[in-house]
Specification:
This protein is α/β, with parallel strands linked by helices and about 160 residues long. About 30% of the residues lie in helices and about 20% in strands. The longest helix is centred in the first third of the chain and has 21 residues, at about 5-25. The two termini are about 15 Å apart.
Length: about 160
Amino acid sequence: MVAKLPEVYAEICMVLLFALIVLSQGTQIPAQRSQVNSWFASIIKPAKQRGRTVDPDVAKAEANPKIIKVKKGGGGDFDTITKAIASVPIGNNKRVIISIAPGVYKEKITIDRNKPFITLMGNPKNMPNVTFDGTTKKYGTVDSATIIAFSSYLLISI
């Protein structure tokens, strides 16, 4: 998994970037499959043609990402996702990829707004199972969620 991590991360970023571009263009994906390629080519331009349209903070953060490994039962940098997130400094300005090994993680995860540029990523072939038994009766509607994220520039693939 470690050798493929940058490739998977790049693919996730491309999908999210594509989604943002489509949303910003205000266009709809054509219903006819035969029209999709020409529609895509009309919206997505090579980086050189797009100029400086990427947020400078994002470009800087993505330049040198840090990888933190989470593995249930040990063998990673942390054994819980919560501990890995807690290790990210307040005011973080680098992409921090929290690579989560397969397994069941029973945690209530909160990512505060002062910890931007976090990516939670599992192995696409053997995803982790993140679960929490919060109920609306016990926590209320919003706080019963397994993952609550307030931060900017967050990517989740788990």
